Amino acid sequence: MIDFNCKDFTILIVDDAPKNIQVLGNILRPLGYNVEFATNGKQAIRWIQDITFDLVLLDIMMPEISGFEVCEKIRKIERYNDIPVIFLTAKTDSESVVKGFCLGAQDYVTKPFEANELLARVKTHLQLRHSKRLLGETNEWLEKEVAERTAELVAAKQELEELDTVKNEFLNLLNHELRTPLNGILGGLSIIKEYEIPKETEQFIHMLDVSARRLEKFSYKVLDISALRTKGGSVLLLKEHNLAEVLHDVQVELSDMAAKKNITVNLACFQEILTMKADRKKIQNTISYIVENAIHFSDPGSMIHIVAKKERDHLICEVKDQGKGFSEYALQQLFKPFSNTRHHIDSNVGLSLYYAKLVIDAHGGRIFVDKNTPQGSVVSIILSGNPS
Question: What is the pTM of this model?
Answer without folding.
Answer: 0.54
